[in-house]
Design brief:
Number of helices: 10
GO molecular function: ATP binding
Strand order of the largest sheet: 5-6-7-3-8-9
Pfam family, one: ABC_tran
Structural class: alpha/beta
CATH class of the domain at 6-78 and 150-220: Alpha Beta
Radius of gyration: 24 Å
Protein name: ATP-binding cassette domain-containing protein
Family: Belongs to the ABC transporter superfamily.
InterPro entries: AAA+_ATPase (IPR003593), ABC_transporter-like_ATP-bd (IPR003439), ABC_transporter-like_CS (IPR017871), P-loop_NTPase (IPR027417)
Order of helices and strands: EEEHEEHHHEHEHEEHEHEEHEH
């Protein structure tokens, strides 16, 4: 398989007084699902449109296999992309939409039928695409992205409109594509969609990269030195641990979240004080916790806190 690397280097883009991208830099490499995540307005879609040559950067560069997308002959053979599932002729059938794309890339009808079956659209392929649900349009867009069997795939919010079965199916499909050596770049703002699928995350906010790391390392960093303790004496246990230098919060009626002491130190403090505990374990953050910690200062639109009605 040819070089599948998607490289973004120092992209900058302004729209009037608004800075959309402020030095965006990352790489999506072969054999890995890279999640491209961040709040709304973080610059994900703008970056993807620049990669495809649909927008022009004010500075920096975006390359597919070492070359600008616009310079590629038969570009769908290098990078398959889904940015907008509604970008199709509504009167054209799903199959004819794919046949039109196939002809532009020198591909035959057999390949069209293969990808229709791959995405589960056989029964709907001869119906006008304008009558498709959003989930079906996403599947058609995926078929188009896979059509030329490219070494790299880039998808913008592909889970939108998918039912739970469709989300599970899509996760498996993308994992399989990466397992075959492709670079897979998937944008999302919901960590639940990427959970168990992404190997690596590029977290962005306000047009720049906040974190570029493996999922495992991000979760480990977010987990920190916190310990969860279940105790029948939460108040005296919290007091003893605080005196020993820990930061203690009440996670539940009988559960304390302890920060600043290692697990063995927590055990020593509770044992010395004769304080009971039935469970003690290092805290393991979720991917969503890690993401929220990283993007807390980069959210552009934030709702007011809700409280009881007056």
């Amino acid at each position: 398989m040819s070089d599948a690397t998607i490289e973004v280097d120092g992209l900058r883009k302004r729209y009037g007084s608004t800075t959309a991208l402020d030095g965006m830099t990352f790489t999506a490499v072969p054999g890995r699902v890279t999640g491209f995540v961040g709040p709304n307005g973080a610059g994900k879609s703008t970056t993807m449109r620049i990669i495809l040559g649909l927008h022009t950067a004010d500075a920096g560069r975006a390359l597919v296999g070492g070359r600008p997308y616009r310079s590629l002959r038969c570009p769908l053979r290098h990078l398959g992309a889904l940015l907008d599932a509604s970008a199709l002729h509504p009167a054209r059938t799903g199959r004819n939409h794919l046949l039109w794309l196939a002809q532009s890339q020198g591909l035959g009808r057999r390949r069209v039928d293969e990808v229709i079956e791959q995405v589960g659209l056989v029964s709907a392929s001869r119906r006008p695409a304008g009558g498709y649900s959003l989930g079906m349009r996403q599947r058609l867009g995926l078929a188009a992205a896979l059509l030329a069997d490219p070494p790299a795939i880039m998808l913008d919010e592909p889970f939108n409109g998918m039912d739970p079965e469709g989300i599970v199916w899509l996760r498996g499909l993308l994992r399989a594509q990466a397992g075959q050596g492709r670079a897979v770049l998937v944008s999302s703002h919901l960590m639940s969609e990427l959970q168990g699928m992404a190997d690596h995350l590029v977290v962005v906010g306000r047009g720049r990269v906040i974190a570029d790391s493996s999922v495992a390392d991000l979760i480990a960093a977010a987990s920190g030195d916190r310990v969860r303790v279940r105790t029948g004496a939460p108040q005296p246990a919290a007091a003893a641990l605080s005196t020993a230098g820990a930061q203690v919060t009440r996670a539940d009626a009988d559960v304390l979240a302890v920060r600043g002491l290692a697990a063995e130190q927590v055990v020593a403090v509770l044992t010395a004080g004769g304080l009971p505990f039935s469970e003690l374990a290092p805290h393991r953050a979720t991917l969503e916790e890690a993401y929220l910690d990283l993007t807390r200062e980069a959210v552009e639109y934030r709702a007011a806190a809700t409280g009881p009605a007056s």
